[in-house]
Amino acid sequence: MVVSLSDYLILSSIVFCIGLVGIFVNRTNIITLLMCVELILVAVNTNFIAFSYFLENESGQIFVFFILTVAAAEVAIGLAILTLLFRNKGSISVDVTNSLKG
Amino acid sequence: MEFEQILFYIFSFWFVASSLAMIFSRNAAKAVLFLILAFFSAASIWILLEAEFLAIILILVYVGAVMVLFLFVIKMLNIDKSTLRAKFAGYLPLGLVVAAVIVAEMILVLGSHQFGLEVVAAPARHSADYSNITVLATQLYTTYVYPFELAAVLLLIAIIAAITLVHQSQIKRKQQSISEQVKVRAKDRLRLISITSPNKKTKEVDGG
Predict the structure, then answer these.
(1) Which of A45, B83, B122, B183 has the fewest Cβ atoms surrounding its Cβ within 10 A?
(2) More confidently predicted of B83 and B182
């Protein structure tokens, strides 16, 4: 084994920041925002699994299991809200959904 | 360079490259496909970390169900591409600066002097008869049985919420009205009229 824990942690932090930049730059499409959230969650899960492997403790993998469950539920509800938004506004742009702005 | 290190760098390269391609692609369907590639690379990295069950779950549940749901919604909504091209790079410089600073800080904190092989030694590989699923299931059904049940309830709530949100209102739905159907008579629905056949006429014209 020559790949160290810090390699995995740095990889997941890079992917985390890519997802963050994706949320910054995509102002036009809520679907892409949801996908960036998924990317961030996968990066966090990689952190959990790396620590679980190197510390020889399976609880990290259990946490990943629950994170995957919650993420699947979040995507289902998010896409349902997206469908409603498109039905009511005719667009899924972030700029259209500002009716809560004072 | 050992074989495992080569694999790690190949999978990491595809993970990072497909993530970058995902956030910068302007077509939402292409972004979903790049995200699927990123998930496959992440699953490969998880297999390197001996989390076989979660890697399979990532591919089956995420690529098989969630990403297909994304593609389904994208194809169903028929998003106008011209609106997607506008205002793309407004916050790009700020986002890049923030991301670069975060990555630099993370590398400073998580570098090999803190989490390297000298500090956190790599554990020995398990033997071939080691079952990741057995270990996970033992934990899940003993220590974490209440969170497991809560996760099931959470999924049920998510199903109900999603269906309730997108359900059409009562007026738009087609449904049976049994009393109306029973009350109907043949004269309301059926009308007998006599029509002269047009084919016969054309034949006569042809003949004349």
Answers:
(1) B183
(2) B182
Nearest-neighbour CA in chain A from B15: distance (Å): 8
d(CA B205, CA B208): 5
Which class is domain B1-79?
A: mainly alpha
Can you tell me which residue has the tokens 């990689």? A46
Domain boundaries, chain B: 1-79, 80-125, 126-164
| CB within 8 Å: A4 and B58 | no
ipTM of the complex: 0.91
Q: B153 CB near a chain A CB, below 8 Å?
A: no
Eight-state DSSP code of residue B85: T
Among B83, B155, B166, the residue with its CB nearest the CB of A28 is B83
Structural domains in chain A plus CATH codes: 27-93 (1.10.287.3510)
pTM of the model: 0.81
Residue A68 in this model has a pLDDT that exceeds 50? yes
